[in-house]
Design brief:
Elements lengths: L3 E5 L6 H9 L17 E6 L4 H9 L3 E3 L2 E6 L14 H9 L3 E7 L15 H32 L3 H18 L14 H6 L8 E6 L10 H12 L3 E5 L1 H7 L4 H10 L6 H13 L1 E7 L3 E8 L4 H8 L1 H5 L1 E8 H6 L3 H6 L4 E3 L9 E7 L2
Parallel strand pairs: 1-4, 1-5, 3-9, 5-6, 6-7
Antiparallel strand pairs: 2-4, 8-9, 10-11, 10-12
Helix pairs in contact: 1-8, 4-5
Amino acid sequence: MGFRTGIVGLPNVGKSTLFNALTRTAAAQAANFPFCTIQPNVGEVAVPDDRLPRLAEIARSRDVLPARMTFVDIAGLVKGASRGEGLGNQFLASIREVDAIAHVLRCFDDTDVTHVEGRIDPLADSGTVDTELMLADLESVERRLQTISRKVRGGDKEAVTQEGLLVAARAALESGRPARTVEVADDSASAWKMLQLLTAKPVLYVCNVSEDEAADGNEHSAAVERMAADQHAASVVISAKIEEDLSQLEPEEAAMFLAEMRLDEPGLDRLVRAGYELLNLQTFFTANPNEARAWTVRKGAYAHQAAGVVHSDFEKGFIRAETVSFAEYVELGGESGARDAGKLRAEGRNYVVREGDVLHFLHSA
C-alpha cells in the first residue's frame, strides 16, 4: 500500500517539472504556457529507505523492492474552476480520486517564466486554488443537506450525525476556512471521510524556490510555512529545477551536486517524509532469500491488516505474525539469530504494527 498524491497548483508554478523529476520520466510536458498538462499523468516512484539494502544483505535477498508512492500530475487550475472554467471540471474530478494534495506554490522570480496572474504571491495563489475547492465543497454540502433533510426529520441517527458534520463543514467554508480545519471526534471520523470533501484532504504545500534558495528558502516560503501551520497542513521547500537536474545524474554525480547546493538530501526524500507524516503512514518489511521488500501501512494498523497489504489471502487466512524490530534484526544477524536470542515474537491479529517491524506472516491456505 502506497498513497496517491495529486500535484496541483496554478499553471506555470513548476508542477510538471516536479512531476518529471520525481518520476524520472518526461510524461508530463513542462512547457511555458497554461494547461500544458491536459490529462492527469500518473507516475510511481520508489520510497527512499536506507534500511532496505541492509535488510536485503542480511537476508541474502535476490531482489530488493522498495515501497512505492504514486503521484498524479493534475491539470492547472484557474479562477472559476468550481463553475467549470478552464479545465475546472476535470481538475475537481481528479482531486476527488487522490488521498492527499501536494500543492505546488511558486516562490521564485523568473521573468522568463510567465505567471498566469502576472505577479509572484504564493499566498494569493494558494487562495485562488483553495477558494475554488471551497466553493465546490460548499455546493456539495448544501446539496447533501437538502438530500438528508427528510431522514433527519424522521430521526435517522446516521442522517443526524451526517447533518452535524455537514453543518460544521458549512460554517468553516463560509468563513473562508478549508474543511480540514474542522475538529472531528474519533467516533465520527468514518462518517466525515465519507463526505469526500475536497478541502478535507490532507495538504502538503510545496514551495518551489530558485536553485540558490533551496537550502534555506526565502520570505515567500516562510510565509507559506506559517499559513500551512494555521491550516493544519504541512509544507516543504524544494527547487523543482534542482530535482529535475538530479534525476538525470548518476548517484556519485548527484551526491556532488547536492554538496555544491548545500543540500543534505534530494527534495524527494523530504517530500516523502512530509507525506508520510501528513497521512499518518509507516513502513514495515518482509525479508527472505527471494526478496527484501518495504511496505506501507497506516499507523495503528493491526497485524492482520498489514498481512492484507502483502496479499489479501494472507489477511483472510491470518494465523499469526512473527516479528522483530529492524534494529534487532540487524544486530542479531537476521531472523534465525533473532529467534535464537528470543527476540522473534509471535503476535496475533490484534498486534499493532510498529515502524520498521520485520514481519513474517503465517496463514492458512
